[in-house]
Amino acid sequence: MTSDEKLAQLDELFGSYKAEWLNEKIFHFFAAPSYFTSLKDKRPCVLMGGRGTGKTTVLRGLSYMGQYALNNDDIDRFDLNSYIGIYFRCDTNHVHAFSGKGIDNGTWMKIFAHYFNLIFTSEILEFIDWHKKLKSDDEVLSKHACSLIATSLHLGDVSDYKELIHVLETAMYKFQADINNISDGNMPQLSLAGDPVKIVTEQARKLRQFSGKIFYLLIDEYENLLDSQQQIVNTLLKHVPQSYTIKIGVREMGWRVKHTMNPQESVIDPADYVLFNIVDEFTDETPDKFESFARDVCQLRIKDLLEEDGVEFDIEQALVNLPYEDEAIKLGVEQTCQYKNILEFEKESGLDLGVSSLYKFFISYWSENHNSMLKDTIEDYFKNRKSWNTRYENYKYSLLFKIRTGRGSGGIQKYYAGWSTFVKLANGNIRYLMELVYRSYYIYLQEGGDITKPVSADVQTKAARNVGWKNLTELEGTWSNGAQLTRMVQTLGTIFSKLAKDGENSAPEIVQFEIEGERSARTEELLQAGIMNLALVRMPANKQSGRGSVKEFMYSLHPIFAPYFIYSFRRKRKMGLSDAEFLLCVDNPNNAVRDILSKRNVKIDKEETNMYQLSFDFWD
User: Fold this and answer.
1) CB of 438 within 8 A of CB of 432?
2) 573-578 sheet: strands from edge to edge
3) Mean pLDDT of all residues in 550-570
4) CB atoms within 10 A of CB 617
5) Cα-flanking dihedrals φ and ψ of residue 537, to 5°?
6) What is the pTM of this model?
7) Can you tell me the distance from the alpha carbon of 308 to that of 264, in angstroms, rounded to the nearest whole number?
């Protein structure tokens, strides 16, 4: 393939980050996450994670179309499954039509419940018809069964399942037309919440080909439902019959209502459902799960790109990590005055410290920041090498941010390279990981790189910064007050960057924050929106607190922004912010940067506070 052809194929293979863009290719590229098997059991499940964490891909993989494709379009293999997945995506345009127009909320809840019945009954009947087209000897729904289903939905008399499908399709379009004009008195006849779905699944299970199977109602983008609509589905979730169960995909903080249509009745994990928090599954106790999953996803795509060349590919070897000491050399540590001071001392004293260039920089830097004579610091090093080695291991990563500082420090000021680094920047988000890989190879191929050889650290870093910038610019469109999220990220990113470069060496890698004291409703809203839209990541303030009240959490910017602002993506130290300081980050970023940094003895001038204004300009 020519370079242009490879770029085009790369765009096709990696450019479609969203499952919705892949269409039929979604199953060709499907890689099962570690929790996929657990999702297959009969228990109701809630799959929680931010956009891009793979919820849609997983739920569509559980659907009957997904399982058929994953079983190589073999209907006999498909029939070995004990379940039948029916996928439904909560479309904002549709579900938000069930409000206003002079109708009270209680009536709208009943209308939406009827819509839910229509949707899933129709989808289940379509499945039955789909299966019969592949297996002509299937049993069909009896006239009595069809009559029961039709009666439960007020569809009138039907003679067979074909007519039932036709009548139901017509009823769906009429229902939608009635909803758009409901203020004119076009109130439809309504069914009982969940009852038609129970009837159609029970009748389907009586058919020979579906005997003993259970239907999975797969509800994606649950956060799009109105609060009252979540109540209805919560009720069905809590009281699932034997014929079907419910599995939900929702963004973190998007499941706003945890009670049923009875406000006194809550749905509780694990009594009523099993919660799978994708980021926790991937990043807490077993981070290697995400790395393995991500490797499979990328390898499947790169394999297609390299198939013509017949080249073996290993993503870890292609995106090589850069050891700290090597990175320090590339950043110019040997041109710093700190390093040169050590060389001069070694020359004058005749002593050889016998350590790396970065270690020498560390010793000199430590001496400067603790107001001690370099001679005394080196003498202490020789006396206490063990403690110094431990100190160096704790601080050497943070030192990389201090090598290229000050005005005129152009070019790359910190490298973000390597497969393991990309995995950590993605923080359990497969879409972000794919963006990082895609952008690295796109830049690499544009610059004439050989795809069979490793991608340089410079290209990877440029790609990581590019992806961070892209996701920052997109924040404004993710929420009604998205501009506030953008300003919040810009302000906090600027603060963390300045602390990384010029902060006290005794407290390196401050990349987290917590809100101290009481919080205003606006702060709570911003935090929730930040989490839902991947501007923020939250974690328990201590290991014993668990996932309870929101006030028990501390926060960080999503690691994907770290390469753009240039600070550490690792979870290390935190700073405290008052409610007023946090809101100042949104309302007056310049003052917030100056005030918050001044409390930490870091000075910043006006020019620096504006250094991270959104721009299309990147370093060369």
Assistant:
1) no
2) 536-540, 553-557, 510-516, 573-578
3) 88
4) 6
5) -120, 135
6) 0.79
7) 62
